[in-house]
Amino acid sequence: MSIFMILFTLLGGITLSAQSAINGTFSRKAGTIETTFLTFLTGSMFLAILILFFGQGDIFAIFKAPVWQLSAVFLGVLFLLFNVFAVQKIGVIATSITVITGQLMIGVVIDHFGWFNSLIITLDMKRLLALLFMIIALYFIYKGNKRSHEEATE
């Protein structure tokens, strides 16, 4: 089952990068906020159909959830909004590596302190080195993008 989940998640990453590229292009014509809205509206309609036919949970549990847990909804909107905007400016790969670096940075902090009732996994040298390598990768990708952009505009 774990190999299936890895492949499933890999497919999710592939679709996220494809969506970023398409949304970045689309937002040049429709606008960043409008593109983000359309993405969430379409996604909401699709999920409503899935809930209708396959839902097993309690949709009204949202009224019982602590307010801090509902903040995830706004964080998702901000993520997509920032992503659509960034792809237009720095490209898909720089946006993706920046997102992943940010996720890893906050992820080690959340794990280390056990925030949001997560497992406590202490920050060690291996994790610190992994973050350093991601930051180095981000630097080289950004510099490569910048150089390619400058060459293309000459």
From TrEMBL:
| Chain segments annotated as transmembrane | 36-55, 67-86, 92-113, 125-142
Q: Which UniProt keywords apply?
A: Membrane, Transmembrane, Transmembrane helix
**Any one cellular component term from GO for this entry?**
plasma membrane
Pfam families per record: DMT_YdcZ
Q: What InterPro entries does the annotation carry?
A: YdcZ
Give the protein name, as stated in the record: Transporter family-2 protein
Which organism encodes this protein? Psychrobacillus psychrotolerans
